[in-house]
Amino acid sequence: MKPLTPSAALSAIVGSKPLPRTAVVKALWVYIKKHGLQDAKNRRQINADANLKVVFGGKSKVDMFAMTKLVSGHLK
Fold first, then answer.
1. Cα separation, 8 vs 12, whole angstroms
2. Among 56, 58, 59, which residue's Cα sits nearest to residue 70?
3. Over 90: is that where the pLDDT of 41 sits?
4. Binning pLDDT at 50, 70 and 90, where does residue 1 land?
5. The domain containing residue 39 runs over which residues?
6. Number of other residues whose CB lies within 10 A of the CB of residue 52
């Protein structure tokens, strides 16, 4: 896959160097698990912290499938 440059908001989570979309999603999951942001009851929900809230367009909870769509807007 072609490396894409993350936006400033996304680079706070995954770094600023260009990465393929698959590597960005993997890095997001590492961040989510490290900070315990996956909802305990509904494992498909991601509870956003301050960094993720910016990436998620201000939403405090996002479904894991919607997450990839929202992240796509932060890749060029």
1. 7
2. 56
3. yes
4. confident
5. 8-72
6. 25
62 DSSP β-pair partners: 46
User: Would you say residue 56 lies in a domain?
Assistant: yes
φ/ψ of residue 6, rounded to 5: -75, 155
Q: pLDDT, tens digit, for every residue of 19-35?
A: 999 999 999 999 999 99
Return d(Cα 43, Cα 37) in angstroms, integer.
10
Whether 15 contacts 27, CB under 8 Å: yes
- Owner of token pair 């929900």: 45
- What is the rounded distance in angstroms from the CA atom of residue 73 to the CA atom of residue 76? 8
Question: Residue 3 domain-assigned?
Answer: no
pTM of the model: 0.91
Question: How many domains, the chain?
Answer: 1
CATH (domain of 66): 1.10.245.10
